[in-house]
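Example with several molecule types.
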Amino acid sequence: MRIETQVIDIISQQALLEPSDVTTDSTLEDLGIDSLGLVESIFAIEEAFDITVPFNANAPTESDFDISSVGAIVKAVDALVKDQS
Amino acid sequence: MKRVVITGAGTINALGHDVATTLDALAHGRCGIGPLNIRDVDRLAVKIGGQVTGYDEHEHFNRQQISLYDRFTQFTLLAAAQAIGEAGLTFSGELTDRSGVVLGTSGGGLNTQDENYRAVYEEGKNRVHPFIVPKLMNNAAASHVSMQYNLRGPSFTVATACASSNHAMGQAFLMIRSGMADVMVTGGSESMLCFGGVKAWEGLRVMSKDACRPFSATRNGMVQGEGAGVFVFEDRDHALKRGAVILAEVAGFAMSSDASDIVTPSKQGAARAIAGALKDAQLNREDVGYINAHGTGTAANDKTECAAVADVFGRYADDLMISSTKSMHGHLIGGTGAVELLACIMALRDGIIAPTIGYEEADPECALDVVPNVAREAKVSAVLSNAFAFGGLNAVIALKAH
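Resulting structure tokens for the full complex:
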């Protein structure tokens, strides 16, 4: 679960929370992450895993990258790491 | 027409991180120019500048703020906090819509551009941080001041190179005078002391490699500085009603364009702005005791400026004092007029005329009283602050004691 830990680290930093306060069930909304915070999280994820995330801020829900919860993001990152490695 | 007064001032620059330290340095002729401490300085021919030292952004801002605040925005916010704090204003109710922010800058987030061009061109990175655009844009500083203090009236950024701050403060003044706003946060900021910023100036061959010596026959160019100056301009009636301490009155403003050359200054253009500011302030020539000169330390500016002052003031030119404080804090480009307005306020309030330091030898083409090297005590009741930009855009502000 190395990916999960790293993603939670990144998201908790954005949310100004402790990693222990972020669970896979949390939504970005629950955590108070706004649109700028989301874009910055995605940038941090790309940097951390050296992947390209297919995400367009104009239509965040329509992209292939599922951001409905922290768990969904972890799953999507996992798939991208496998695809792009 | 409304009268306009200054009720707060703030700064961070090479001479100090606040107004008191800066005025003390100006009064003692201290020089803030020194060796540049920036990346790749060994590849620069010009290795000096008026850099803000002893500054750690992490002491003032958190990680998320830093991801959005370029150095020029950081300087602005620190200076604005001082100015608004001194004014003792809180913005709520109707006042929020009657208050705005007009700031000057020339390069905006130039450090952000420099760092990120370096990342993609030199280091070959293919991804940049998502906030580069909101961080580098010239209006970032004005917008963050507006957001932080809930100033919802007229707000924008002026970019007229070395006259940006004076043009910005002129707009703020005119808006209050005409009744468009009650309070304006105004001034300017610059942070160009990065490799690309200095390298570009080197190209013009107008930079000194050792010191800024305005009006001295031995002058050999300008020295760049960095920092911010921010003021609270306020409708005089509004300020009096709330019992605010008034630092000075903004008495007049004028601007002109040379319409001649993109870099060479024109005596006529400068003279029209100076004469215009006197007229706008309803001042007679003999009323002006001090001029804070544009005084860049270049051959062209200093002799042209002196000739313009001599033309406008005629037989009174020998009675006034004119100094260039750029000799101490360097040329803050788009922020310079704002920091220099502090010297004007010091002249009016404290009766101390800041000197032109580094002065070595008289130049017959700059034959005015340039207050060489040592500050002087003098009672003055009206002052001017000159700014003459590349592009031939001139802006002169007149202040009166209150």
